[in-house]
Amino acid sequence: MRFILSLFLIALLFNFQTLNAQQANPNNIGSVKGLLKDTVRNYTLKSATVSLFKSDSVLVNYQLSNNYGEFTFKNIALNTKMYIEVSHVGYEVYRKAFTIIEAGQALDLKMLVLKQRDILLNEVEIKIPPISMNGDTLEFNAAAFKLDSNAVVEDLLRKIPNVTLWGDGQI
Fold it and tell me: What is the 3-state secondary structure (H, E, C) of the chain?
């Protein structure tokens, strides 16, 4: 029984040593920071989505820029090609590639300027029915009926469906 307990304790101690060996060396990391601005009005862009990718498009981390348009990514591995992608509503997506080459390097991308994106909407056509019933009253839009320039009310009434004009002018 003591042998099994001793073996278990040795195995447990070995596992802690292995876990400790797998922790990242704080001297082998860097950071990157930047400031987001608008091209037209030079506004800082708050709440923009800033994503950090490896060069093979694997997402490493992401965050929103703060109220001053600033962002910071820490614990970036050395000698790994990466890029930052910034997106914000109404702006074109911005990408910037970089590599941290020195341990403890704090790469400052300075000011990243995002270009406004024009959004073209499809046309909207509003159609109003030419005739409607409002209680016991028949309402019609005279502009919806094509008539000659010298037409009279009688000509308009003849074009309205379900309205009959008698020869003596009665409706």
Answer: CHHHHHHHHHHHHHHHHHHHHCCCCHHHEEEEEEEEEECCCCCECCCCEEEEEECCCCEEEEEECCCCCEEEEEEEECCCEEEEEEECCCECCEEEEEECCCCCCEEEEEEEEECECCCCCCCCCCCCCCEEEECCEEEECHHHCCCCCCCCHHHHHHHCCCCCCCCCCCC
